[in-house]
């Protein structure tokens, strides 16, 4: 009986052991399989990019469509962001007034095309005033480019040994006119070939005296566009003395990119607006499209002829050509607002908001096509459904640079000096509360002197700018700190800030050219901006920014008016820039 109990007990133990091995192993396999499936699921969500072209993002491995290199997995940091991405705080995003929009597609059809161009001289109406004989210019009456010349006007007197000898022949032939009319006629014809007027010849014949200086008269009317000789120069037969241009008609020449050529043809209507006359629209037609592409710019010249009898258009003026009802054979195109695009050299970049709910951004280099009104056609770089930054782009770019991310100005990390320059776009969180009004009034005097310095640079007046910089330094030195003397923080901050602005205003006095002056002016602007942010003023101050200044590092300035007047380029790019924020 006991032996039967022992057998039953052994059977139970054996059954438990077998059940453990069987069911325990099954559970282990199931868990292992589950973990493996989870790992596969994670890998299935992995993104792939190109080390040379980080804008390429694919959901699976393969080759880069641009360079053909193998794609690599996208690496992320502890926060889950890639090397190209960065995150702003929600507070900074709100302060910077960042706005975004979702990129969509616009159907093909009739649309406008805008091209930038300039007014140039009509080369078909350029004439040369030559010398028709050898000699020395004793007196030149055409002395400056832009001078008006009327046909038949005296333009020069010339001493010519050849003409002196020919006059002696003329006097002799004149005396023998009755007996040898053919000789007389031949001598007269020689003078006519030299474009000598009959009046001068008749005077020589009647007086019998040789004239030492011959007068040259203008052959055509126009505006002097080039002077090739000066008084005292020896000229030769056929050599140009000056050129004149008939400006009754001028050319409007535009640069069209390769992808825009397909929409243009000779005879097509164009509406031209000059920046000098923004409310005046001139209707014209395309008369010429250059058959040769400029290799350096990848553009062709598109030309229209403008009537200019009233003299409204001056060669060198900037104009814009608007081509309406452009038929594009492409089925659909992606377009983005012009406010979203930033330029640096040949690169065009935008910022994408890569997270729907979080302020995570990423720079993307794009290829643009035609400008269609207030939008650009996008050829490559972004796709439909991407979220793009349309307002506050420079603030986002500055933050990217300070975080060491790829940005408009660079594709790698930036130097501390550049970071200080671009710090101008960040919102200052440090300010002095309740600065005395009397002290703020003194700072307004500093601000007004600074604005005057800015205006001298807008006018590109280097000497006046240097004088005004000395005046600004004098005003900063005269700031009375009695009203803030009992506030240790105000005094400490003013000591630091005033020392910086004085040092930069002293440095700006040592430069010898306007380019270096403008570079140092960007530091002075940063000083004045921080001063106003710290203590405040009672007037509205516009902080304005130009991404092209300081060798594409970017620079800003302060203005009392909203309209952009760029002190870094003056008339060359007067309206280049944007209003970044307002201090008040």
UniProtKB/TrEMBL annotation:
UniProt KW keywords: Membrane, Transmembrane, Transmembrane helix, Transport
Domain CusB-like barrel-sandwich hybrid: start-end pairs: 130-244
Domain DUF3347: 446-538
Membrane spanning stretches: 5-24
Sequence ranges assigned to domain Heavy metal binding in this UniProt record: 48-74
Domain CzcB-like C-terminal circularly permuted SH3-like span(s) in chain numbering: 335-396
CusB-like three alpha-helical bundle domain segment(s): 162-210
Domain of life assignment: Bacteria
Start and end residues of each CusB-like beta-barrel domain: 249-321
InterPro entries: 3HB_CusB (IPR058791), Beta-barrel_RND_2 (IPR058792), BSH_CusB (IPR058790), CzcB_C (IPR058649), DUF3347 (IPR021782), HMBD (IPR045800), MFP_Cation_Efflux (IPR051909), RND_pump_MFP (IPR006143)
Family in the record: Belongs to the membrane fusion protein (MFP) (TC 8.A.1) family.
Protein name, entry field: Efflux RND transporter periplasmic adaptor subunit
The organism of origin for this protein: Formosa undariae
Taxonomic path: Bacteria, Pseudomonadati, Bacteroidota, Flavobacteriia, Flavobacteriales
């Amino acid at each position: 009986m006991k032996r039967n109990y022992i057998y039953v007990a052994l059977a139970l133990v054996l059954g438990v052991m077998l059940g453990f091995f069987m069911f325990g192993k099954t559970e282990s396999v199931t868990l292992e399989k589950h973990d493996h499936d989870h790992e596969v699921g994670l890998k299935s969500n992995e993104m792939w990019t190109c080390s040379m072209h980080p804008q390429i993002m694919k959901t699976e491995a393969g080759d880069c469509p641009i360079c053909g290199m193998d794609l690599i997995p996208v690496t992320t940091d502890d926060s889950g962001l890639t090397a190209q991405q960065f995150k702003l705080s929600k507070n900074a995003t709100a302060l910077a007034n960042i706005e975004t929009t979702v990129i969509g597609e616009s159907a093909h059809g009739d649309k406008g095309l805008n091209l930038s161009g300039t007014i140039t001289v009509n080369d078909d109406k350029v004439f040369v005033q030559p010398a028709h004989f050898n000699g020395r210019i004793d007196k030149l009456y055409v002395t400056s480019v832009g001078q008006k010349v009327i046909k038949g006007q005296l333009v020069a007197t010339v001493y010519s040994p050849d003409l002196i000898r020919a006059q002696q022949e003329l006097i002799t032939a004149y005396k023998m006119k009755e007996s040898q009319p053919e000789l007389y006629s031949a001598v007269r014809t020689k003078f006519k070939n030299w474009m000598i007027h009959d009046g001068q010849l008749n005077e020589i014949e009647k007086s019998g005296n040789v004239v030492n200086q011959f007068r040259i008269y203008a052959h055509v009317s126009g505006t002097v566009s080039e002077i090739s000789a000066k008084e005292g120069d020896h000229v030769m037969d056929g050599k140009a003395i000056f050129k004149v241009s008939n400006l009754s008609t001028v050319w409007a020449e535009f640069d069209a990119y390769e992808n825009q050529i397909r929409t243009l043809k000779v005879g097509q209507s164009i509406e031209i607006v000059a920046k000098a006359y923004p409310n005046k629209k001139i209707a014209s037609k395309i008369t010429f499209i250059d058959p040769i592409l400029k290799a350096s710019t990848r553009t062709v010249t598109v030309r229209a002829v403008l009537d200019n009898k009233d003299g409204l258009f001056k060669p060198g003026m900037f104009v814009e050509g608007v081509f309406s009802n452009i038929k594009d054979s492409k089925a659909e195109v992606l377009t983005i607002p012009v406010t979203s695009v930033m330029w640096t050299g040949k690169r065009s970049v935008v910022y994408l908001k890569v997270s729907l709910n979080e302020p995570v951004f990423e720079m993307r280099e794009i290829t643009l096509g035609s400008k269609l009104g207030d939008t650009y056609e996008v050829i490559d770089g972004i796709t439909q459904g991407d979220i793009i930054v349309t307002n506050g782009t420079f603030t986002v770019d500055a933050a990217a640079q300070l975080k060491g991310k790829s940005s408009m100005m660079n594709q790698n990390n930036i130097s501390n000096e550049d970071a200080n320059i671009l710090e101008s776009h960040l919102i200052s969180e440090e300010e002095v509360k309740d600065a005395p009004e009397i002290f703020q009034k003194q700072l307004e005097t500093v601000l007004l002197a600074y604005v005057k310095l800015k205006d001298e640079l807008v006018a590109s007046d280097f000497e006046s700018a240097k004088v005004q910089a000395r005046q600004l330094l004098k005003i900063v030195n005269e700031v009375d700190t009695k009203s803030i003397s009992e506030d240790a923080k105000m005094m400490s901050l003013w000591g630091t800030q005033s020392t910086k602005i004085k040092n930069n205003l002293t440095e700006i006095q040592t430069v010898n050219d306007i380019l270096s002056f403008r570079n140092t002016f960007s530091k002075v602007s940063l000083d004045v901006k921080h001063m106003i942010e710290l203590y405040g003023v009672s007037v509205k101050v516009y902080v304005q920014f130009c991404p092209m200044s300081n060798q594409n590092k970017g620079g800003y300035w302060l203005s009392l008016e909203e309209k952009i007047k760029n002190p870094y380029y003056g008339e060359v790019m007067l309206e280049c820039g944007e209003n970044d924020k307002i201090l008040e």
